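Q: Protein A?
A:
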Amino acid sequence: MSEHVNPVTGVLEEAPTVLELVPLDLVNLSEEDLLAMFPSPVQVAGALQIARARIGHAPVILKTLSAAVKAARRDLLIAKGKAYRDARKAGFNITDARLFSDVDGPVVEAREAVDDAELELEFGRDLRKSLTTDIDILRSLNANFRAEHS
């Protein structure tokens, strides 16, 4: 077990092991047990179809997520402009108004919205990459199965 600091109490505690390695006793497995560990040709073909269908939606989803990032950035600029305007009306000089516009409540919320939108876009891109990798692996498996069963 590893140790970590409890963020609430500040006390060093033993962390529960989330992932433990399980030894595979491959020597004592029968041929049928070993074959059951691998997908059938039908399962590979089905998984390939599902992955292709999902990646087909990726361009539209990524376009939507990109638009959300642009909208959030626009909202941030608007919030900063309003905060700057309000600070100038309240009598702040230019430098102080700029500093105030960075810490104004709506500006902070808009900045967090930009961060959230950018994280969602990055997650979408990562998901697309992983689907592409999955498709490559499934294509390879599918080709191997075809060669074996031809």
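Q: Protein B?
A:
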Amino acid sequence: MRDRSRATTTLAAPPDPTADEALQRARTAMTTETRSLMTAIGRALTEVRPTLVMREVTRLAYAGRAAADVHGLGTPRAVAATGLLLRHMPRVDWPTTPAPITRTEYGMQLIRKAAI
């Protein structure tokens, strides 16, 4: 019987950093669906109570609602779409802005970013 504790070990090759970066870029790339959802959210923000101050809670709610409207509430695809949206929608509360931003201003930012 062979003693397995003395068997030679094989080390895996070190990970390729360029492949990791490419995979990360592919995971976070803005898809056509993300662009259309961001545009729809931006338009909604400019039309519904446009003078109110934009809050982080509003950003989270709009992303979740837009993804649920397309993919269904709580489905894995809706969760993934929400994650992509939130990754590309700039945060409202961080870094802190010198003055509060209105829903219209934020909506216009989203529309511009989706058009790029």
